[in-house]
């Protein structure tokens, strides 16, 4: 055998042969992920709470008579399943020193002051105010005057709304204070909802002096010392229930 003779190993690498064990491990089926705990967690999770319709009760009250009706009205609204009454007061326009001279009691700080822009969040609105010569008080009129942007953008169109009032005497505007306010709703394209005679026999009783009319609940304030009667409060609660049922019906049309 000459120089360089003999067997020269091949430089070609032989293909590696995978063991059956390795192949089997690579091709083994992946066990499904155990999601039993997720299913149990989902089953245990409570269903999402149903969102309630919002009926805003927006009022101005100097001596507390309208506020008393508003709070009673909220009880009526909350008595209708799926609807919640939310109390708001409109901004005061008189300075504190004037209110003090008029012997107006302090405002209930638990009831927030509403801005005009917040009205769009309501599914329905009840406006309450005392009379001033047969029309709404200046504080409520100032609030309506601040809704110009909502009118321009037609944000309140189709929202149901109603009124409740307070007057000093029997002939002081239980009806006119409400129906002169209808112009505010008309320009916004809102739906006026009076109570009519839905209160039943209570609308016809003549035994006691009672505020309220087919236009809405009402109270006689007298010189400011008279408190709402049981009948006046019952009518306010009825209006809350009635309005809440109308709002609920309109939403589900």
From TrEMBL:
It comes from the Eukaryota. It holds the Pfam family Flavodoxin_1. GO terms for cellular component: membrane. Residues 55-243 form the Flavodoxin-like domain. One of its GO terms (molecular function) is FMN binding. It is an enzyme of class 1 (oxidoreductase). Gene3D superfamilies: 3.40.50.360. Belongs to the WrbA family. This is NAD(P)H dehydrogenase (quinone). It comes from Phoenix dactylifera (Date palm).
């Amino acid at each position: 055998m000459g120089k360089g003779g003999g067997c020269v190993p091949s430089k070609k690498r032989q293909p590696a042969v995978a063991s059956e064990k390795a192949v089997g491990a690579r091709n083994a089926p992946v066990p499904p992920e155990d999601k039993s705990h997720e299913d149990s967690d989902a089953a245990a999770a409570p269903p999402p709470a149903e969102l309630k319709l919002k009926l805003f009760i927006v009022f101005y009250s100097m001596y507390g008579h309208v506020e008393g009706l508003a709070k009673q009205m909220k009880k009526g609204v909350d008595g209708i399943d799926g609807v919640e009454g939310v109390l708001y007061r409109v901004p005061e326009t008189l300075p504190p020193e004037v209110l003090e001279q008029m012997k107006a009691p302090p405002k209930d700080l638990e009831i927030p002051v509403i801005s005009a822009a917040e009205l769009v969040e309501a599914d329905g609105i009840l406006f309450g105010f005392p009379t001033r010569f047969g029309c709404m008080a200046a504080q409520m009129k100032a609030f309506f005057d601040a809704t110009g942007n909502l009118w321009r953008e037609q944000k309140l169109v189709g929202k149901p709304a109603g009124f409740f009032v307070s007057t000093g005497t029997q002939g002081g505007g239980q009806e006119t204070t409400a129906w002169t306010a209808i112009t505010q709703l008309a320009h916004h394209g809102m739906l006026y909802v009076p109570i009519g005679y839905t209160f039943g026999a209570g609308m016809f009783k003549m035994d006691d002096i009672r505020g309220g009319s087919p236009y809405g609940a009402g109270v006689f304030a007298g010189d400011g010392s008279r408190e709402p009667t049981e009948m006046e409060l019952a009518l306010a609660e009825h209006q809350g229930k009635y309005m809440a049922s109308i709002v609920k019906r309109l939403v589900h049309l």
